[in-house]
Each structure stands twice: as structure tokens, then as C-alpha cells.
Amino acid sequence: MATIKKFEDLEIWQLARQIENEIFQISNEGLLSKDYSLKDQLNRSAGSIMDNIAEGFGRGGRNEFIQFLSIAKASANELQSQITRSLDRHYISSEKFDNINSTVKLIINKIGALMKHLNEAEFKGQKFLNRTTIKQDNPKPQTPNSLFNTKKAATPLGAYPHARRVGNLLFLSGIGSRSAKDNSIPGLELDENGNIVKYDIAAETHQVMANVKAVLEASGSSWDKIVDVTVFLTNMKNDFPIYNKIYAEYFTNVQACRTTVEVKSLPTPIAIELKVIATID
Question: Fewer CB within 10 A of the terminal residue: the chain, N end or C end?
């Protein structure tokens, strides 16, 4: 395999960029442009393929690259499901579906081939060059225990990380619906005294799902590895039907265990918060 010095030279990244541009174009056309939930999911999945290939390459280690490639591959599979839904809803033509799907399949196959090559390679990665290996007579088994934070989710409000790994489990702190970009809460209006005038539980639910996904991927896990979810709502009677419907869009194929509870309030004027446990390789 030829030496690649920058991620832009990777064929899989170039193909992922091509797909991302196509998805952006079709998501802003016709009826699909009005289906904000599906439109957002399509763009996030397509962007995730590109971004995780780039981040994995930039980490400089073979195992980390493989880990991020697996996330990119999972996002590509997710994208396949989403374009199928777009076809079923008559948002795109069969011809457009076939063209996009064939390219996504090619990306999945090429990512798989690259992962196989990396698994079989002896070279650990650029960041391991010139390192001295210290041999131990009786090395103790290591249990991974790491803290994770990401700029792609809102900053924690206290002395805690976005996520913590213990063994093969990843524990996420409570994740709310604040935007990582400006700390805003989608659809929220406050009066001059800081009291809630109105809020949008649908918009907040989509945002909290996006925040959870960002933390999972930054921690080396993925959506399909979620095993347990605790949901906190501030208005069970009014918000449960809307949140529950949107929840199904994200979790029908995951089938994680779930508990939903009502609380009087949350630390910021958000209406929903998720506490998630996932597995991690």
C-alpha cells in the first residue's frame, strides 16, 4: 500500500466527501428538505463518515485508526438505512437511491479492506516511532479506565467528564439539549426573569440525541453499542408522547434498555436529559 501523508489522499475519504456533497444536495431539495428529522440524520451520518476517517488518520496510531474506521463504517451503514427511508417516503428516485447506495457500499467495502490491512500490519503508527519498549518480567493485566471530553457537545457544568470508560463499558454523564456551538437550547424562549415562556420538546430531543452521538463517537464507541438509557423529562404528561415517537426513530434497531422518569427541574432550563451506558471495544 502506498504511503499516505494526509487524510485527503485517502480514497475512502474522497468517496466519503463525494457522498456527503450528494447527501447535502438531495437533503435541500423537494419534500426531503421539509422532513427536518430525516434531513438532519442524513447529514450527520454522511459527515460522520468523513470526519471519523480524518480523525482516525490524524491520531497517528494503528489501533486508534482502526477504531475510528469502525465508527465511520457504522455511520455508512446508518446512512444506507436512512436513504432507504428516503426512498420509501418517495423523497428520492430509485435511480438516485441506486447511485448513492452503490457508492456507500463501495465505501463500506474499502473501509473493511483497510481495517483488515491495518490489523495485519506490524507497524503501530507514526506516533510510536522512536519509542523504546520496556519489557516487564511479570506485566500486570491492564483494565482501561479513561475520561473523555469533546468540543462537539456542550461543556459539562461541573467537575465531571462527558464520559468515563471502565473496562469494556462506557458511562456517559447526563447529556442535555444544549448546543455545543453557542450553549443555546433549541426552541427555548425565556422572559426577562429567566422563566420559560415556551419550549420545543421535539427540537430538544433531536439535539440531545445528537449530543449523545457526539460523545459516544469521541469516546470510541458508537450508537449501536448503547445498552441502557435513562431519560429525564420535566413534563411527563405533555412531553412523553412526542419524545417517545422521536426516540423510536433512533433506537428501534438498537433495542437498549430504557427507563423514563419525571423530575421537577434540571440544572439548566432544558426539558430532557439522557444518561447512557454503552459498550466499547
Answer: N
Is the pTM above the cut of 0.70?
A: no
Give the chain's end-to-end CA distance (angstroms, integer).
27
The grid coordinates listed for 39 are 434531513
pLDDT, tens only, 174-218 = 999 999 888 899 999 998 888 899 999 999 999 999 999 999 999
We report the CATH number of the domain holding residue 69 as 1.20.1440.60
Which domain does 163 fall in, by range? 145-279
135 domain-assigned: no
User: Could you tell me if 152 and 240 lie in one domain?
Assistant: yes
152 and 260 inside one domain: yes
187 and 82 in one domain? no
